[in-house]
Design a protein that fits this description.
Strand content: under 5%
Largest sheet: none
Helix content: 55-70%
Oligomer: single chain
Radius of gyration: 41 Å
Number of strands: 0
Order of helices and strands: HHHHHHHHH
Distance between the termini: 88 Å
Shape: rod-shaped
Length: 231
């Protein structure tokens, strides 16, 4: 009987000696990844400084800074997630560090300081993030066009280009004719009241050239839209 009790006492003492080996398991057991990031960052500060505690403001400031630096900010996008993560982290820290004065009062003070910093960290992580997709522009512009619509558009452009080409030929022919008259020395006013083809000034062909360039640009854009629509 004495041997039996001796064995039981030995087992109890062995179990008691093993308890310290389980310190920190509450943090390891966290299933909320956000909470685990916060608790792990604070735990590192506690392990590095055995006198650090939650009652002192300067230490709480260090814990807040460490927690914000150790998180993946984009995952803290809602208040619900932030509150849940902080509450779970505090509970795990209370379990693993019962000697660091993480009382309910100190825990509330730590939480009140940490939550706005987490919100700001998330907001900062979103700066410069663009949701604009350039490919949507072509899709939206081409949307609603049928193959028949595009064929009609190209027929109109082709007729317009042919017309402008004929006009451009006439302009250059006129310029060549005027140049010949100047070379012959016949610069006197012949009394003609004819106006230049494109307005009140001598025709230079600039207007027609710009028109052709503009139409060509539109035609190129339409071709791109057609290919996009076909895909």
């Amino acid at each position: 009987m004495k041997k039996f009790f001796a064995a039981v006492v030995a087992l109890v003492m062995l179990f008691a000696l093993c308890v310290p080996a389980f310190a920190g398991t509450a943090i390891d057991a966290l299933t909320d990844a956000n909470a685990k990031e916060i608790a792990s960052a604070v735990a590192q500060q506690l392990d590095e400084n055995t006198t650090a505690n939650f009652a002192a403001q300067n230490y709480r400031d260090q814990f807040v800074t460490a927690a914000v630096a150790g998180i993946t900010a984009k995952n803290f996008d809602t208040e619900e997630k932030r509150v849940a993560a902080v509450d779970a982290a505090i509970a795990a820290l209370q379990a693993d560090y019962p000697d660091r004065q993480l009382t309910e009062e100190n825990a509330n003070a730590f939480k009140a300081e940490l939550l706005p910093k987490l919100e700001k960290a998330y907001a900062d992580s979103q700066l410069g993030v663009s949701t604009f997709d350039p490919s949507e522009v072509i899709d939206n512009v081409a949307d609603g066009f049928s193959d028949g619509d595009l064929d009609a558009l190209f027929d109109t452009m082709r007729n317009t280009i042919n017309d402008l080409s004929d006009r451009l030929t006439g302009v250059f022919s006129g310029i060549a004719g005027d140049s010949g008259s100047s070379d012959s020395g016949d610069s006197a006013d012949d009394g003609s009241t004819d106006q230049p083809e494109f307005g009140g000034s001598d025709a230079t062909g600039d207007t027609a050239i710009f028109a052709v360039v503009g139409v060509a640009a539109v035609a190129g854009a339409a071709l791109i839209l057609t290919r996009k629509k076909a895909k």
